[in-house]
Design a protein that fits this description.
30% helix; four-stranded mixed sheet; 5 helices; Translation Initiation Factor IF3; 10 strands; Ubiquitin-like (UB roll)
């Protein structure tokens, strides 16, 4: 059985505004600017409301902490729309930073080290932080210097795109550090390969050079086509 609809009690509450407008402004004196930001001077609240009423606009308090408070004569609906649009644009421009982690063992070989370091480079170039840890098993904990050497190699391999955000420290059986992308250093971007149009460019083949070997062992001289024709004519004669 469905419950009967019960209408909400009392008037519907409007969302709370971030700014005071018109009669909500309590300061006696105000510094007023128009919709384009041009200053209109310091005046009483009554005078500012009168100007806003004449222009069929709202008086919006935009800087209540100033002395006297700063108010703007503008269409409040348009003001909120532009501010919301500007906030969304700023959020799009902000890059979200996440923490990526790569783990090594005390006896990690060169191939595995290079493979994980390449992934760490990609993370840093994308703007993420990278945490590198070395895990010790059993008696390996007695040789912490192996992990320190490995992590130093890791730092040196990524020094062109990163900086140390957190130095080496032990956490139980893990030795770790954290690298952050260094925005001051230029990031090398991969250039896209040019697309081929399907045409194959044929390079001209080099013409063969006929050489004559001298009897005295000197360096051979190339025989041109004209000299061959002259020899053929002399034979015919």
């Amino acid at each position: 059985m469905r419950r009967p609809y019960i209408p909400p009690q009392g008037p519907r509450q409007e969302p709370q505004r971030k700014h005071k407008i018109n009669d909500e402004i309590g300061a006696a004196d105000l510094r007023v600017v128009d919709a384009q930001g041009a200053p209109l001077g310091v005046m009483t609240r009554k005078e500012a409301l009168h100007i806003a009423l004449e222009r069929e606009l709202d008086l919006v308090e935009i800087a209540p902490q100033a002395k006297p408070p700063v108010c703007k004569i503008i269409d409040y609906g348009k003001f909120i729309y532009e501010q919301t649009k500007r906030d969304k644009q700023q959020k799009k421009q902000q890059t979200t930073t996440t923490l990526k982690e790569v783990r090594f063992k005390a006896g990690t070989d060169v191939h595995d080290f290079d493979f994980k370091t390449r992934h760490a480079r990609e993370f840093l170039e994308e703007g993420h932080k990278v945490k590198a840890t070395v895990m010790f098993k059993g008696r390996e904990i007695l040789h912490k210097e192996l992990g320190e050497v490995l992590l130093q190699r890791f730092i040196d391999a990524l020094v062109d795109v990163s900086k140390v955000d957190q130095s080496m420290r032990m956490e139980g059986r893990f030795l770790g550090l954290m690298l952050a992308p260094d925005i001051k250093k230029p990031v090398k971007k991969k250039e896209p390969k040019p697309k081929s149009d399907g045409k194959v460019e044929l390079k001209p083949k080099a013409m063969p050079v006929t050489e004559a070997v001298s009897e005295n062992g000197t360096e051979p001289e190339p025989i041109s086509d004209t000299s061959i024709e002259e020899q053929q004519q002399s034979v015919q004669e």
